[in-house]
Give the backbone structure.
Amino acid sequence: MLVVGAGGGMEILRAVRLGARRVDAVELNPQVARLLREDFHDYTGGLVADPRVHLHVADARGFLAAQQRRYDLIQMSLTGVGARAGSAG
């Protein structure tokens, strides 16, 4: 499974709890990734330390273009999309 926009980790948690064998989570903001890895590690139950979870700091399009991996499911929450709607093209 691929989660585009890891955010607070809710979709990662959902994927793991529903039995995903591997979750690639892509987060554009390195500060959000750091929060998941460090500051909120205990709060999230060490979610991104789970061996099934692979957190990547990258642009989702660039990440996918560089991957050879195929995904059964791609989760892309549209949170905050209204603020960026003008640049969506």
The two ends are 26 Å apart (CA to CA).
